[in-house]
Amino acid sequence: MIYLQNFSFLRVKNRLFCYLENKNYAMWILIFLALIFSQLISQSITFERGKSGKFKDSLAVRWLDPKFGEFPDASLVDFSFLLKPPAGKFGFVKVAEDGHFYFEKTGERVRFWGVTIAGSHVDIPKEKIETVVEVLARAGCNLIRLHELDNRGSEKFGILRRCVIDEAYPNENNSKNLDREYLDRIDYWIYQAQKRGIYVYLVIRAYRTFKSGDGVEGAEMMDRKGSPYSLFDEKMIELQKEFIDEFLFKHVNPYTGLPNGLNPAIAMIELINEDSFFFQYDKLDNMIEPYKTKFQKLWIDFLKKKYRTTHNLKKAWSTKDGFSILKDDESLELGKIYFPKMTLRKFSDVNFNFKSNELDHPLRQKDGLEFLMSLQIKLFKNLKNFIRSKGCPVPITSSVNSEIIHDTYTVFSELDFVGQNVYMDHPFFETGKEWIGIPFFRNENYLKRKDRWTFPVYSAFYAWKNKPIVIRECSQCFPNEFRVSSFIHLAVYSLLQDYDAVIHFAYYTWADVNQISSFGFQADPTRWGLFGYAGKIFINGEIKPFSKEIDICFKDDDLKIWADWWSDVYKLSFKFKVRNKIAGDKINDGAMNIFSKAIFTDANVRSFVDSLIKEGDENDEVRIDFSSGTFFVNSSNFVAVAGEVDTSKIYELGKIKFKTSSSIVAFVMVGLDGENLFSSKKLCVKVVTVAKNYGQIFEKVGEKKFALKNQGRAPVQTLGEGSESGTQIWWNDEKFLKGYLKNGSWEVLIDKEKKFVFLFCDTPNVKFEIAESLIGNGKSKKFYQEFGEEKFEDVKSGVLVYPGYSKYVLVY
Questions:
Q1: Which of 268, 309, 361, 415 is least enclosed by beta carbons within 10 angstroms?
Q2: Residue 33 scores a pLDDT above 70
Q3: Exposure pattern of 349-371 as b/e (b: 16+ CB <10 Å)?
Q4: pLDDT band at 431 (very low <50, low <70, confident <90, very high)
Q5: Is the full-model pTM beyond 0.90?
Q6: Alpha helices by DSSP H, 561-650
Q7: Quick one: which H or E segment has residue 243?
């Protein structure tokens, strides 16, 4: 093995140092050994595979076409050069004052491009973990998010599965014990990832099912998560702290020699997954006992602390003309004040002077909102302080409702970073058939939209100033036919907005691993095939953030108004860096400040925002044609065209021109040697179009409503077929590459100095033309999976017919 077991090495090192501690040369030996270790662990995946003897081809590719097996490589290119193994060698990840992640020891800023591995996909044999981590590292993935570790499933979904909580006899009636084999697999994921230079994001509580044996009253009547009771009940909060203590600190990972909570390879911790009072604000009056009574007592205590007497409360809860919204039977002294019904209104519909004593009056809601936010912040502070008391400095977040500004504020105010979701074309279901019925989709090109549900706009609504922004789950879901643009689009706009991490949901490791599913992209050429390219762009920061920033300012009292605060101002995220900000924070900091309340109340401010939205693009490297749904990047580092294209049109990107017969496409060209693209000697080009499962049935059943009646099965099909017009690329008006192919996927890796070209195509017997200046003597080799290379035909005038089902071809 090329890779040493690094923590075993550290233990040997410590013993050696003890033995030689009185010798002058002890430190020199340790430095020498550390240098050897560093070199060994920094080898590329290609080098390691070549040394293993299992790969007989030059690039040591597993396979690129998912038809040939599970866990295909993402590219001809080994993107593991983006990683700096072992993870954690630069110390813990820290949050700096500017609101970004940095390494503790070097002060270097770090961005994360990762995948989520969830639930049962964590629970796989160790040899498969090794394979998956190797494939991810080669694709340039520098972070894995281990999620749903406590998700047993649910009887109502017809799925029960093993998780980190041991439910086997005699522990079937409680959730306090850890399943040692599942825990061992988590440990092994962390160890393997760390060794490769991949950091880890741990989710602590996702779907824990509390049980009566935990001492939780009414546990049998709770759904998984135990929500909302686990957000305020002291017993349930103590159970969460016990789990944190056992999982992160008392347990020592046998492969690293460290508790996972004290390992610098752990980059982020998520306290709670998608749970808050504001996910269920309209159902808080339906609590079970004894929690309804406990919640009511907390509410009364809050009001007593704030108002002391009913007289003071009545005064605060009165309209301008003296109308009191208190009901006749309400008394603070008697402990009877009804909690508000938290009906969410448009901002324009909020009227504090409305004469009504209904439970959804804005004055009552104002205190209800403040109470809920205070409870949530108290919980976050409690759990965060507990983790910090154990010596863990890892940045912490909690996932809340992205669409409620008050909710994301509670994370911003108390925790270290904001981690939220963005899904485009997430499946939806008929009522009562969630996750068990036929899934429906909109199946639209999101590059044609400018509204709240696009990536830049949706994410801007939860982006708070001076905190790292982590897209902790994102996907443009299969079978959306336009998803090929999503990975490049996510990378570029995350850079324009100066975000800190993008984590794709999800990489599957078993079951339907050889086919595409709504979330699982590991066999999807339209997403996985572009993972490394987009990762290189994002990790290296190859697009600069917008130079101008707009801060959406909130005064303290604004966040006491229960309303939907979303407005068109967030559409400016297509042209400006956009952040939310509390008005007391440095107003004059170089950003353009727009007060959120004024957008709703001042016609002049609305008119100004509208004028900014209508202005031309601020960035001359990135452009979206919203009418056609096409995305363009023309930068010094890379060029790209993605989305729906006009097959009769030649697209110009500086020195590069591009034309294709595929109406839905992503084309990207990047340099690999750190040089400007147009002076680079090593280039890669990828063209990806569409993909579906064999036998898939996807039909329109209504307006913007498509039903996936049959997901289909393997093999994945990209619908490639021969085409005279095909896809053509020009460089400085000279023919550079041409593939006589409509649809399908293909990739070219070019070394201009050595004059050789590697070519992959997932469609057999397709003609390609390669500029003669790129190749040497016109020889070629083809590579197969089992017996390696085989001499192929001479390539005359750069023309080659791609040979059948070979893994790839070398032209030299």
A1: 309
A2: no
A3: ebeeeeeeeebbbbbbbbbbbbb
A4: very high
A5: yes
A6: 596-601, 603-614
A7: helix 234-244
Amino acid at residue number 699: E
For residues 560 and 546, give the distance between their C-alpha atoms in angstroms, rounded to a whole number: 31
CA distance 11 to 322: 74
Paired with 108 in beta bridges are none
Residue 439: name the closest of 505, 509, 517 by CA.
Answer: 517
Widest pairwise Cα distance in the chain = 95
Buried b (16+ CB within 10 A) or exposed e, 543-573: bebbeebbbbbbeeebbebbbebbbbbbbbb
What is the mean pLDDT of the segment spanning 127-145?
A: 98
Determine what percent of the chain falls in helix, strand and coil, rounding each to the nearest 5: 30, 25, 45
pLDDT value for 30? 32
Distance CA 216, CA 239 (A): 9
Q: How far apart are CA 692 and CA 718, in angstroms?
A: 7
pLDDT attached to residue 766 = 97
> For 692-710, how does the pLDDT look when each residue is reduced to its tens digit (9 = 90+)?
999 999 999 999 999 999 9
Query: Is 731's pLDDT higher than 60?
Result: yes
On whether the CB atoms of residues 7 and 194 are closer than 8 A, the answer is no
Task: Report long-range pairs for 427-435 (Cβ below 8 Å, ≥24 apart).
Answer: 427/477, 427/518, 427/708, 435/157
* pLDDT at residue 160, rounded to an integer: 85
pLDDT tens digits, 494-509:
999 999 999 999 999 9
Sequence-distant (6+) residues with CB within 8 A of 451 are 457, 571
Sequential DSSP letters for 287-312: PPTTHHHHHHHHHHHHHHHHH-SHHH
- H helix or E strand, kind and range, residue 365: helix 362-389
At 41 the three-state DSSP class reads helix
What is the Cα Rg of the chain in Å? 28
Q: To the nearest whole number, what is the mean pLDDT of the chain?
A: 93
DSSP, collapsed to helix, strand or coil, labels residue 440 as strand
Question: In sequence order, what are the beta bridge partners of 760?
Answer: 747
* Residue 38: predicted pLDDT: 38
Cβ pair 184, 129 in contact under 8 A: no
Q: Which residue has the higher pLDDT, 122 or 8?
A: 122
Question: Please, where are the H alpha helices in 2-117?
Answer: 6-20, 26-41, 45-52
Please determine, for residue 22, whether its predicted confidence score (pLDDT) is greater than 50.
Answer: no
